[in-house]
Design a protein that fits this description.
about 220 residues, mainly beta, Jelly Rolls, 3 helices
Length: about 220
């Protein structure tokens, strides 16, 4: 287990909402602003067709209205969430107007795959699983699994999205533990407070909840 050092990440924070330590990115009163978006990122290169698990802990508490926020993003551009979805991106959204915790894949600005689970204000322990060949007809899969405990013995929910060859192709990328999404004028102030911590880009998978998940599927 080797956690990312967020003190080495680049912070774009024009309003002073973000605090970084070595193992945590936290935000207080972060607004979904139309101008001067807020994000934290670092260079990241991902190998083509390689099975990986990215693990992290995340909490986002809504303060006002229903903001939309990038929870975890791997993309080929530097910028906010709007910039990311206009390009090639793997993205987890926290969308409280739903509310939903949504995994999406964008290829050259097109949303090609999406699935959602219920969002909440709790601390969530998340596995982002990259499977090179586990999808339909040999395609890849990206799976987001949410747990309620740090030991990852109690699974809350999961979403699975199909990943094409383009999605899994090797590209020089950037990883974002936080990315705000600017909203259009007239939508009001949408604010959240929370944190993202303990990002492990090469985590191990706890096999027990996986077996329990498939046991429940087979019993239906």
């Amino acid at each position: 287990m080797a956690f990312e050092d967020f003190s080495l990440y680049t912070e774009v924070d024009p309003f002073g909402d973000v605090t970084k330590t070595s193992d945590m990115v936290s935000w207080v009163g972060l607004e979904s602003r139309n101008n001067n978006p807020t994000f934290v990122y670092d260079n990241f290169s991902i190998a083509a067709a390689t099975d990986k698990v990215h693990a992290f802990e995340y909490q986002n508490v809504i303060v006002a209205d229903t903001p939309i926020q990038g929870v975890y993003t791997i993309t080929d551009v530097i910028g906010d969430t709007v910039d990311a979805i206009a390009n090639s991106t793997w993205l987890i959204f926290d969308i409280r107007s739903g509310p939903s915790f949504s995994a999406r894949i964008y290829e050259s600005g097109v949303n090609v795959s999406e699935d959602s689970m219920v969002a909440n204000d709790n601390a969530n322990f998340v596995d982002f699983r990259i499977n090179a060949t586990g999808g339909v007809a040999g395609n890849g899969q990206l799976t987001v699994v949410m747990f309620s405990d740090a030991g990852k013995t109690t699974e809350v929910d999961r979403v699975v999205v199909e990943a094409t060859a383009e999605t899994l192709a090797s590209f020089a990328a950037f990883v974002y533990p936080l990315s705000s999404r600017p909203l259009g004028a007239g939508l009001g102030v949408q604010t959240s407070t929370g944190h993202f911590s303990d990002l492990d880009l090469d985590a191990a998978v706890n096999i027990i909840p996986i077996l329990e998940h498939y046991r429940r599927m087979m019993s239906q």
